[in-house]
Each structure stands twice: as C-alpha cells, then as structure tokens.
Design a protein that fits this description.
The complex is a heterodimer. Chain A has helices at 3-12, 17-21, 49-62, 72-92, 106-117, 139-148, 165-171, 194-203, 223-226, 251-256, 291-306, 309-326, 355-364, 377-383, 399-416, and strands spanning 30-31, 34-35, 37-38, 100-103, 126-130, 151-155, 176-182, 207-211, 230-234, 245-249, 267-269, 276-277, 333-336, 345-350, 367-368, 370-372, 388-392. Chain A is of the alpha/beta class. The radius of gyration of chain A is 22 Å and the shape is globular. By secondary structure, chain B is mainly alpha-helical. In chain B, 50% of the residues lie in helices and 10% in strands. Chain B has helices at 5-10, 19-27, 32-44, 89-102, 107-112, 115-121, 125-128, 136-152; strands spanning 67-74, 79-86. Classes of the chains: A alpha/beta, B mainly alpha. Chain A binds chain B through residues 32, 353-357, 360-361, 364-365, 371-372, 386-387, 411, 415-416, and chain B through 32-33, 36-37, 40, 64-66, 87-91, 127, 134.
Chain lengths: 417, 153
C-alpha cells in the first residue's frame, strides 16, 4: 500500500463506538438492575479515563498553588495549568492565551461579561437575546438592565424551534448594544446560524456573546472565523470536570473591562492609596483557581482531539436520525424542536403523560434522561408545556441505546393504558 | 366546587384503604411494572380536588409537577383530613400512599407515624428521600406542619 492509500483507509474507518465506550468506565454499570443507558449528556457528559487520570496524577504528583511558589512543585503545577489554557486556546483557535479566562462555568462567564459591560449601557439601550436562551443567558442581562436602565429584548422563535430571522432583523437596531445568543439550544437542539447573525450585529457595532455550552460537545468552534467578541462554555458538558469553564474574549475588550472579583492573583500591586490590576488573563482570575479541573479540561480536549471528529459527527447524526424514525412507534409522542440543523438532542412530550412520570419510569429501566423546564422557562411558555422530557445523546451512545429508549417508552405507554 | 366536610371524610385513602392493604398488595407485585401499575391505580383513587383550591397558599413548592394540598380538622373527632392533587400520575400514586398512612388520624398520631419507614418497606424510599426533587418530601413536611399547628392549638 502507498502512504496515500493508508491515509484513505484510515479516513474510511467507521467510528468505533464500542472502543470509545471503554474509555468511559461509568457507562458499564447497572442501574436498577438494567445496563445504564445514559441519555442526559446535555445536563452533564461523562468523563473519559484520560481526564480522571490527569486529575488524579495532578493531585498525587504535582499539586501546589500556581503562579506563586518558589519551588519545583509550584513550577510544575503552573506549567500544567498554563498548558491547559494553551490547549483551550487551540481548541477555540483564539489568538492568544491572554484571551482565555478560567471561570466556574458558562453561567459565571456570562455574569462576568455582563458586569464588565454594564458601564457601557445607558437607559434605552437594548440587549438582544433570544426566546430559546438558557436562564444563564437571560438573567445576568436582566440584572444589569435593572442597574443601568437598559432593556432585554428577545428574538422570537418559530414553532419548529428555529430563530425567527425576521424578528432578529427587526429587533437589531440602533439601540442594540449587546447581542447574546446561544450557539445550540439546550432544549431544542437547534443549531443557530450564528456566523451570519454575528456579522450583521458587528456591522451595526453591536458587541456579541455566544453561549457555546451545548455546542462544544458536538462542534469545535473557531472564534476567529466566527468573529464574536465573547464565546463561553462549561467543561463538564465537554467531557471534562465540573467547576470550571471558559470565557473567551477579544483582548482589547477584556483590557477595557473592569475586573469582576477582587482578591489575590488579579492584582499587580495593592496599597490603601491605589491598587492596580494584573495583566490578562489573570485580571479576571481572583483567588486560587480550580487547578486540577483546568488540567482535567485540557485532558478532555486532548482526548477529543485524538478521536475522529468527523466520524463522531456522522455517528451522532445517525443517532438522531434513528430516534426521529422511531417516534411514530410511540403513539402520542411529539418532538419539540424540529429545526433543520440540530445536534442529537430530542425534547418530547407524550399525550397524557407528565414528563416527570416518563423520567421516573425510564429510570426504572436504567435509562437516564432529564425532565422539567431545562432552565428555559420562556421557551416552555412559548410551547405551552410545563416541561419536556429530553434525551440528549453523546458520541458514546449507540443505536441500540436509541432503540432501548423507544422500547422503554412503549412499555411506559402500556402501563398507563 | 368547594370542598365540603363530606368531601374530606369521603376520601377512602387512610380510612377504607389502609397501610395493611398497600403493604399486602406490594408483596404480590413481582416487578417494577406491576408495582408502578399499582401505584398509578392508587393515584386514581385520589378524590376530585376543588378547582378554587388550586391557589398559591395550597401549592406545594419543590415539585417538577404541580402539587396542591388542603386540609380539614374535624373538631368532633379530633381527626385531620387531607386532600392532595397533582398533574403527574406517579406523584399522585405516591401521594395516595402518603394519605393511606397519614389521612384521618389525630394530629398527634400523625406526628408519630414514620412515613420514611413505610416507604423503605415498600422499596420506594428513594422517591421520598431528600435527594429527589419531586416534592414528596415537601408534601410530607407540609402535612406535618399542619398537624403540629393543630396539635398545638
């Protein structure tokens, strides 16, 4: 074989889900006497051994505080911690690690930006969000709107669960200062056409923030290509540990923004007369950071980098397709969110059944899903439901698991018949 | 429709259907499907709940489903009567089990009843444990508060 045909053969290899599953020890257990079928990845994804090992090794071998010590362990911890930042920079294709701020998660990242931009807002200014946002991309803006007299304005959603572009076009105006939009809806799975939206917003001089929490488990964003001012996500949905997330921000904006919290690390010099701030990214990282978690996130991204990203996307799409095919096998089942561009997330209702009944009885069969309002009450109101049941898939889920979900739903329906 | 004294007293749960009935029935249920079918059936025994009682004061917070709870203290017999409603079938069934254990008792008797033990013996404890956000814990807490207030009165 020539080198070229070897490369082609490698490309054509089918994504080996069984091999990948062996990297996630939590998946091979029984729950309520049944093999676990974990379909709550939208709430939090499971962690590969590579992440568990990286965190374990950190605590066993190099734990120390970062950026401070005059000793070897401190150097090693700092190196590992800053290497993780470089890994995140590479993942997002940011220009510099100065633009990568560690936060506790998406929520804290959005709060940080909202607070940092509050000084630019005046009464009558508008913050444009959408009707499909998670509360984390609504409430921080409402809080600064309250403080500044600005207004939070939601873009409408179509019944299919897509952004209403006419609504966007009519609401993006001279008054708009900030446009904060989710890349992928946590309830509907809709992938928003953010590239075009950001371009339009930027043309009007509007600052743009993208909530990438639900997007990064499925796509690798390129912040320079997107052109957004801020992109935020959480580690735990990206197969990394809880307690850490990322704020990407354009360096110039981050420079202009005031610090979020005061304390250690974020200062250059403190006196009672005058305190000056540390440089980026440390200006926004008061206190001892989540070091092991940052290293764990770095390990998660490295792990994903070793997988066949294209093969993963194809496999995930097949899961969603199979699920869509099987909907008709459950009478009275209705999918909420049928956008053309979707990640493998399926919110649904079943006539006559409360989502919490569905969740409880799936759990009995070893199947983990999420039920409730998914921190998106405005969207629940739009669809006129108290909540939905949501199955959210990851690349380690199998077609067999999709089929088990539907067999279990059929069983539940018989129980209520 | 307003809840009359008779509506409260007509609730079969805890008066006609007893804890013994439920534990006996559970012994004959083999798998989860039979158990939950039974729980769902019990939920169907909850008496109709008056529409105008579905107000904030009677709302039990902390549930994914909507849960309402009202009570009537019968001076003559010294017994406390309860009505519960929910839009989720399994919550209705579990509420029925709570009523079987707590409805139509004197407040003092009610306060000495160990509901956790009952749920444990039925292998349903995880539904009522503090880690579950389904509001059953809140429901029991509200009933005990009512009983404590009546016992102190």
């Amino acid at each position: 074989m020539t080198d070229l045909s070897v490369a082609n053969a490698a490309k054509q290899t089918v994504f080996d889900v069984e091999a990948v599953r062996r990297d996630f020890p939590i998946l091979s257990q029984q729950v309520n006497g049944k093999p676990l079928v974990y379909l709550d990845n939208g709430a939090s994804a499971q962690k590969p051994i590579a992440v568990l090992d990286a965190m374990d090794r950190y605590y066993r071998e190099i734990h120390s505080n970062v950026h401070r010590g005059a000793h070897t362990l401190a150097d090693r911890a700092t190196t590992a911690f800053e290497n993780a930042r470089e890994t995140v920079r590479g993942f997002l294709n940011a220009e510099s690690t100065r633009e990568i701020i560690w936060t506790r998660g998406t929520t804290e990242a959005i709060n940080l930006v909202a607070n940092g931009l509050a000084g630019r807002l005046q009464p009558g200014d508008e913050i444009l969000v959408s009707h499909m946002e998670h509360h984390a991309n609504i409430v921080p803006w409402q809080m600064i709107a309250e403080r500044t007299g600005a207004k939070v304005v939601p873009i409408q959603v179509t019944p299919e669960g897509e952004l209403d572009l006419d609504s966007f076009n009519s609401l993006l105006s001279e008054r708009t200062r900030i446009f904060a939009i989710t890349h992928v809806s946590n309830v509907l799975g809709t992938v928003n056409p953010i590239t075009a939206l950001i371009e339009q917003a930027k043309a009007k001089g509007v600052l743009t923030l993208v909530d990438g929490a639900q997007a990064v488990p499925h796509y690798q964003p390129d912040v320079q290509a997107l052109g957004c001012d801020f992109y935020v996500f959480s580690s735990h949905k990206l197969f990394g540990p809880t307690g850490i997330g990322v704020l990407y921000g354009k360096a110039q904006l981050l420079e202009e923004m005031p610090p979020y919290q005061g304390g250690g690390e974020m200062i250059e010099r403190v006196s009672f007369e005058r305190t000056t701030w540390n440089t980026l990214p440390y200006k926004f990282e008061a206190g001892t950071p989540a070091i092991a978690e940052a290293i764990g996130l770095g390990a998660a991204i490295d792990y994903l980098g070793r997988l066949d990203r294209h093969g993963m996307e194809v496999a995930e799409h097949a899961l969603l397709q199979r699920a869509n095919q099987l909907v008709e096998t459950v009478p009275g089942m209705e999918i909420i969110g049928t956008a053309k561009q979707k990640v493998p997330v399926m919110s649904f209702k079943i006539v006559g059944l409360h989502p919490s009944d569905v969740g409880t009885l799936l759990d009995q069969q070893g199947i983990a899903i999420r039920t409730g309002h998914h921190c998106a009450m405005p969207l629940m109101d739009f669809y006129g439901v108290p909540g939905t049941a949501r199955a959210s898939f990851a690349f380690y889920n199998t077609l067999d698991e999709v089929e088990q979900l539907f067999a279990a739903l059929q069983k539940i329906q018989r129980l209520f018949a | 429709m307003t809840a009359t004294e008779q509506d409260f007293k007509n609730n079969p749960l805890g008066t006609q259907t007893t804890v013994g009935d439920v534990t006996d029935a559970f012994e004959f249920l083999d798998d989860w499907e039979e158990r939950y079918a039974y729980i769902i059936d019990l939920g169907k025994q909850l008496p109709a709940f008056p529409d105008e009682a579905r107000v904030e004061d009677n709302y039990v917070h902390g549930c994914q489903s909507q849960v309402w709870l009202i009570h009537h203290y019968d001076e003559a017999s010294g017994k406390l009567f309860l009505l519960i409603d929910s839009d989720a079938m399994i919550v209705r069934g579990l509420a029925a089990i709570i009523l079987v254990a707590l409805n139509g008792k004197s407040p003092r008797e009610l306060l000495t009843t160990d509901i956790d033990e009952l749920f444990e013996s039925l292998d349903l404890f995880r539904h009522i444990s503090p880690t579950r956000g389904n509001g059953l814990r809140a429901m029991v807490g509200k009933i005990r508060d009512i009983a404590a207030a009546e016992a102190a009165a």
